[in-house]
Amino acid sequence: MARAMFEYTKTILKKVSFDSVLFCKELQKALERLLPYEIEELRIWIDTLIKGKPELNQCLIYLK
Prior knowledge:
This protein is mostly helical. The protein has 3 helices and no strands. It is globular and about 30 Å long.
């Protein structure tokens, strides 16, 4: 079940990546729900996503 939440989170973040404000809000919600090791995986995934969308860089403060 936990893995399903991680995959769902990635799907949602991809869909809202057009808007940095929405992306930040969804990221905050994800950080409340995911397990610590999943948060680390999410950080790696977001680093890859942000390479193509530099406007999302501001949301990285929630991951630190």
